[in-house]
Design goal:
The complex is a heterotrimer.
Chain A: H1 5-13, H2 21-30, H3 43-51, E1 74-78, H4 86-95, E2 101-105, H5 106-111, E3 133-135, H6 142-157, E4 182-183, E5 188-189
Parallel strand pairs in A: 1-2, 2-3
Antiparallel strand pairs in A: 4-5
Helix pairs in contact in A: 2-6, 3-6
Chain B: H1 6-34, H2 64-88, H3 95-117
Chain C: H1 4-14, E1 20-23, E2 33-36, H2 41-50, E3 58-67, E4 70-82, E5 85-97, E6 100-109, E7 114-122, E8 131-133, H3 142-153, E9 156-158, H4 195-204
Parallel strand pairs in C: 2-7, 8-9
Antiparallel strand pairs in C: 1-2, 3-6, 4-5, 6-7
Chain lengths: ~210, ~120, ~210
């Protein structure tokens, strides 16, 4: 039951802290997000720098990079996703247990970046898996990754346990796995997941 | 006053230990039942977790030559176990021990030479 | 190191029947190259590797080039009768040249510390006669690069030990580095200032009626 904000602050002034079950739950989850340890291109170097002593991602509870998708909560897609690599990335995402989150790091992972019109680069990983935070940059600085991480933490913090606005992992009808694209003769089949990604309508004024 | 039973403390500890280990699992189970549903799937239940689909059978047969390699390796493994304490105590040992060790090594080398001549070390 | 002319001369004496041609290069680097006919490709490569004067034991780089069908324009000065007076008139001669695929090998010598010597192999055309002799048996390091040329240009290297696609997947049918490659039409959303890309987006998403 939601509590009156004024009463809560008054109680905390008296040294009594009140909380909700969802707040406790989200507080625990947002401070123990373990990323999956994999890098695809040069952005991975910045990701590694973020975890090291100078930037120290461990301050946010994300120091443990798990080498197995079974133990990971967060997938940092750090780098260029080639079409040959895309099915593997989607399969790794499918193998992560719920709740799981995705940060698309860098220009390549969010849109294909400088290789967008190339023949072998996926035009953004959000065509196949749901992305929570996009970071632009080529590559983004470690501060940008930390900012993305804090954005993700805020997002987790605002999640509700029940009701229609609850996140995917609490909804029994929402999918946990997303279809893995197949290698076709000219391109990936399908080239995007229409349930996740639709081309934005362009409005031209000419 | 209740008579002090020396096993009482152990029983209390035992119950606490069992509660301490089972209670989080039980809470997680109840939590999952109430809030987050299990969502298995063919990808998630796959054995291999590298992003690639597993191909073929995990059980495969080794060639018999491999076991010969293994046996020869084992000989030298055992040799190291003997050599190490010998080397540690080397300064305090009489000359006869050195000779005995040389004979031991010679026997092993002889076995290796025999295996070599038989052609076991060439992988075909 | 010997000049390319000297290499050509010694090749012609030691590999009988070989057809060689020196390809000029007018760019600032001025690196000329040696065009080798396909039938004697492996023999020439073996000679370049084993000749005590050259010993080109290191194949540093193999490149593919796609040359489309082109019309070569050449200006020739010819004498012509114009209005009864003989004058020198410039004429343009147009010759059609069929396209071909090319593999360029850059060779160095680690033993003698010289190089590069550049040799070229050309296919007969771009479609069906796209075979070249593989130089992987001579320089092992050419294996992956020849596979890459096979993958991206569709040149088939005869005698290659393991000719598979290396960058694209096995079921792929195109050769993306060819100049006539048509990429899959997925220009759904391209926030880009590049005109040709914008044209493709317009074809996919025609402008709606103005409000």
């Amino acid at each position: 039951m939601p509590m009156d904000e004024g009463l809560r602050s008054e109680l905390s002034k008296q040294g009594i802290f009140t909380t909700q079950l969802s707040d406790l739950y989200n507080w625990g989850r947002k401070n123990s997000v373990w990323p999956l340890q994999f890098g695809l291109a040069c952005c991975a170097i910045e990701m590694i720098a973020t975890t090291m002593a100078r930037y120290d991602l461990a301050r946010f509870g994300a120091e443990v990079f798990r080498p197995s998708p079974r133990q990971a909560d967060l997938m940092i897609v750090a780098g260029t996703v080639t079409k040959k690599m895309a099915p593997q990335v989607v399969r790794l995402y499918n193998q992560m247990p719920e709740p799981k989150y995705v940060i698309a790091m860098g220009a390549c992972a969010i849109s294909g970046g400088p290789f967008k019109q190339g023949y072998n680069v996926l035009k953004g990983i959000d065509r196949f898996i749901p992305v929570d935070v996009h970071i632009p940059g080529c590559p983004p600085r470690p501060e940008a990754l930390i900012h993305a991480f804090m954005t993700l933490q805020n997002k987790i913090d605002a999640q509700k346990l029940t009701g229609p606005g609850r996140p995917r992992h609490l909804d029994p009808d929402a999918p946990s796995e997303f279809p893995v694209p197949q290698f076709g003769e000219h391109d990936l089949v399908p080239p995007n997941n229409p349930a996740l990604w639709q081309a934005p309508k362009l409005v031209r004024t000419e | 006053m209740v008579e002090y039973n020396p096993y009482l403390l152990i029983t209390v500890f035992l119950v606490a230990a069992i509660l301490f280990s089972v209670a989080p699992l039980l809470m997680a189970y109840l939590w999952a039942k109430r809030f987050s549903p299990a969502k298995p799937g063919p990808d998630k239940n796959a054995i291999y977790e590298c992003g690639l689909e597993s191909k073929g059978d995990a059980r495969m047969q080794f060639r018999s030559e491999y076991y010969l390699y293994g046996i020869i390796f084992l000989i030298f493994d055992v040799e190291t176990i003997f050599l190490l304490p010998f080397a540690v105590a080397f300064t305090g040992l009489p000359a006869s021990a050195f000779v005995a060790m040389l004979v031991f090594l010679l026997l092993l080398v002889e076995g290796l030479v025999w295996a070599w001549r038989k052609g076991i070390l060439t992988w075909s | 190191m010997e000049t390319l002319e000297q290499i050509k001369a010694s090749l012609e004496t030691s590999v009988p029947g070989v057809k060689l041609e020196i390809i000029p290069n007018e760019s600032p680097s001025g690196q000329r190259s040696l065009l080798v006919d396909n039938a004697h490709g492996v023999a020439v490569a073996k000679f370049l590797r084993d000749d005590p004067q050259l010993r080109l034991d290191y194949c540093s780089n193999v490149t593919g080039v796609d040359w489309l069908d082109t019309v070569l324009k050449e200006k020739v000065k010819a004498k012509q009768l114009v209005e009864g007076v003989e004058k020198e008139v410039e004429q343009q001669i147009e010759t059609k040249r069929a396209g071909y695929l090319e593999a360029v090998y850059h060779l160095y010598s680690m033993a003698l510390k010289h190089g590069p010597v550049i040799i070229r192999l050309r296919t007969e055309n771009r479609s069906d006669k796209n075979h070249l002799p593989s130089l992987t048996p001579v320089w092992r390091g050419a294996e992956f690069q020849e596979r890459e040329i096979f993958d991206l240009y569709g040149v088939i290297f005869d005698g290659h030990p393991d000719l598979r696609r290396i960058l694209m997947w096995d079921g792929y049918v195109d050769h993306p580095m060819r100049k006539d490659y048509v990429e899959p039409d997925d220009y759904d959303y391209e926030p880009t200032p590049h005109d040709e890309v914008l044209e493709k987006v317009k074809q996919r998403q025609p402008a709606e009626a103005k409000p």
